[in-house]
Amino acid sequence: MAEKRAKLAQLDPVWARIMGEAEAAVADEPLLGGMVHYSILHHPTIERALSYRISLKLANGEMSEQMLREICDEAHGADPNLALAARADITATFERDPACHRFLQPLLFFKGFQAVQAHRVANWLWREGRRDLSYFFQMRCSEVFGIDIHPAARIGRGIMIDHAHSIVIGETAVVGDNVSMLHSVTLGGTGKEEQDRHPKIGDNVLIGAGAKVLGNIKVGHCSRIAAGSVVLSEVPPCKTVAGVPARIVGEAGCDQPSVEMDQLFRGE
């Protein structure tokens, strides 16, 4: 067993760590043994565990867990980037969220992580032309997690959505790599136009709680958007914006705001 675990740690360190933490969790709290075994220890790969967890959460009377699991397995089999992104999301959540103490937690308990992984499957379905099925995933994510992400929205790797309630991300929105956002963030449009109408968020951006970014505007790499701000115009890289409407109030204050998670403005 030790040799097998060592090989797994070399091949897939994130999954190996989750498996080790799952075994420890069962030892610490036997009442969770069934859930942990079914969700993690029963599966040979993180892809299978993700498919199981997503299908369990999204199943209802209209679409069974088994059907959803087959769809998720198909998506992960066709696009390895889905699970690679999930690994990056788990690592990002562990590193940035002070309430996350184990890699195990996002997979089992954090609805922000779970909703993003469900969206990744929905986006795969959208790209495959299976639009109605992708809308089903969007609907169920909204109902179950309180997060509404259009299946066409493009989301990068290393995403951390803290608390995650009332997140809205529109159809033509783009979210770069290593972005952090808090609850009640909206990446929305400004009217009824049907073309490219949603924000483009650069890499390493931090978006505070309740912030609204509206319209086909760019938010530059390594910038910060203060909590409660309404952003209606382009944000240059490495700046902090705040207010309604938002304006530049200073520099970002660090190289990677989304990693530092520093939401205070100290002036210049």
Distance between the termini: 56 Å
Low-confidence parts lasting 5 or more residues at pLDDT below 50? Answer: none
Instruction: Give the CATH superfamily of the largest domain.
Output: serine acetyltransferase, domain 1
The number of distinct structural domains comes to 2
Enzyme class: transferase
EC number: 2.3.1.30
Family: Belongs to the transferase hexapeptide repeat family.
Pathway: Amino-acid biosynthesis; L-cysteine biosynthesis; L-cysteine from L-serine: step 1/2
Structural notes for this entry:
- It catalyses: L-serine + acetyl-CoA = O-acetyl-L-serine + CoA.
- One of its GO terms (molecular function) is serine O-acetyltransferase activity.
- InterPro entries: Hexapep (IPR001451), Hexapep_transf_CS (IPR018357), LbH_SAT (IPR045304), Ser_AcTrfase_N (IPR010493), Ser_AcTrfase_N_sf (IPR042122), Ser_O-AcTrfase (IPR005881), Serine_acetyltransferase (IPR053376), Trimer_LpxA-like_sf (IPR011004).
- A six-stranded mixed beta sheet has the order 3-6-9-12-14-15.
- The chain has ten helices and 15 strands.
- The longest helix has 17 residues, at 111-127.
- Helix 4 packs antiparallel against helix 5.
- By secondary structure, the chain is of the alpha/beta class.
- The mean pLDDT is 94.
- It is 45% helix and 15% strand.
